[in-house]
Design a protein that fits this description.
single chain; mainly alpha; 2 domains; 0% strand
Length: 171
């Protein structure tokens, strides 16, 4: 795609060449994601933001993802061991993480019944009118995603699953 734009003679024939005009011709407009504001709010800790960003992009190195590359022998959830470990399962389909989510939503005084990270964040954006409270909920979800990922790594590398209370306490 870049070669087509560079090989075109239009940019050679214009007398007013500028780097900005060439840059705008090379760059295609990208779509703005709806969840960017969920991640990059000012109340979230940077490592929590990064973990939530990976979760929303489905880029965590889960066992099923590693299994696709031939790494590892099993792809079962390291926490519950009852289903394939995907980002969807790990973040709130798993009984362990769903229990943590229920604890957090009860603590925040929410009645959200969504089971997906993006659905929870979208629900919060729609139904929570107070901007500060909304950002606190976004930060809590980001922290919970990070804490669940740490619990998953603890169970993989140390062979012990932290209790849900310990995960909640770490937030």
């Amino acid at each position: 795609m870049c070669n087509e734009k560079l090989n075109g003679s239009n940019w050679l024939t214009t007398a007013n060449y500028s780097i900005k005009s060439m840059y705008t011709k090379l760059c295609t407009p990208s779509e703005r994601t709806q969840w960017a504001g969920y991640i990059w709010n000012r109340l979230s800790v940077p490592k929590h933001r990064f973990s939530l960003w990976l979760a929303l992009l489905d880029r965590h190195k889960t066992k099923s993802r590693l299994h696709q590359y031939g790494i590892g022998t099993d792809n079962l959830c390291a926490i519950c061991g009852s289903a394939q470990e995907t980002s969807t399962h790990l973040f709130f389909d798993c009984s362990y993480s769903h229990g943590c989510l229920i604890e957090i939503t009860d603590w925040l005084g929410l009645s959200c019944t969504r089971k997906n990270v993006l659905q929870i964040l979208n629900w919060t954006r729609r139904y929570c009118r107070n901007t500060f409270k909304r950002n606190i909920i976004f930060a809590a979800v980001a922290g919970l995603v990070y804490a669940i990922w740490r619990a998953r790594n603890t169970s993989v590398w140390e062979g012990a699953v932290p209790t849900a209370a310990a995960v909640i306490q770490s937030l």
